[in-house]
Design goal:
It contains 4 helices and 4 strands. The chain is an alpha+beta fold. The protein is rod-shaped and about 135 Å long.
Length: 209
């Protein structure tokens, strides 16, 4: 820091603010503050804690992306499997309805059976249309995460459910919150270290006439 000063400058009278009078003293000096090793270590620890927190946030975002992608894939897969099953049931209902109509035309069946099968077939057709709509929406959601829809979806592999303690410890959100606590702790240490004055190295002030 550069320090300059002027003493005995008159503030009133005909010579006010005149810096060329004989009684005025001009001075100049230089000083520099040195942070202690403890302060530098606290500042470095706080910066490292911020880096670790941001790294944890990146991991949280990556984990959330994987989770959303997996959920979208499961939606598309199981809606597709449900659609296959309902279409098969619709086919069987259609065949039974045709058989029932044939029996009715030959006087071996009854109209109540035909009406019941017609209602069943109509319900299955409605369910098929609903599943087709759900499949389209789920496909758009999956397309958002992976960029294109696979031609064939395979059954996801079975996975082991971890123990609660392991799951909680490895959860990205928990890890990020622990980093937040670490940042708060290091920031508190830095604030405490800033209460101590810095060491000063300064040259004697030089007076200029």
């Amino acid at each position: 820091m550069l320090r300059v000063g002027v003493d005995n400058v008159p503030a009133t009278g005909p010579d006010r603010f005149d810096a060329n009078r004989d009684m005025i003293m001009k001075r100049i000096g230089i000083s520099q503050e040195w942070r202690s090793a403890d302060k530098r270590d606290a500042r470095r620890a706080a910066a490292d804690a911020l880096v670790r927190r941001e790294t944890a946030q990146v991991q949280v975002a990556a984990a959330d992306t994987r989770r959303q992608t997996a959920l979208a894939y499961l939606d598309v897969f199981y809606i597709g499997e449900s659609l296959k099953l309902v279409r098969l049931m619709e086919l069987h209902a259609h065949e039974e309805l045709e058989t029932s109509r044939a029996r009715l035309s030959s006087a071996m069946g009854n109209s109540q059976e035909v009406l019941a099968l017609t209602g069943t077939l109509g319900a299955l057709q409605d369910e098929t249309a609903d599943l087709v709509q759900q499949q389209g929406s789920a496909g758009v959601a999956l397309l958002r995460w992976i960029g294109r829809l696979p031609e064939d979806l395979v059954l996801p592999d079975a996975f082991m459910i971890p123990a609660e303690e392991i799951y909680v410890t490895a959860h990205p959100t928990v890890a990020a919150m622990r980093r937040d606590v670490d940042v708060a702790r290091q920031t508190a240490n830095l604030t405490a270290s800033n209460r101590k004055p810095n060491c000063k190295l300064q040259d004697p002030e030089k007076h200029i006439a």
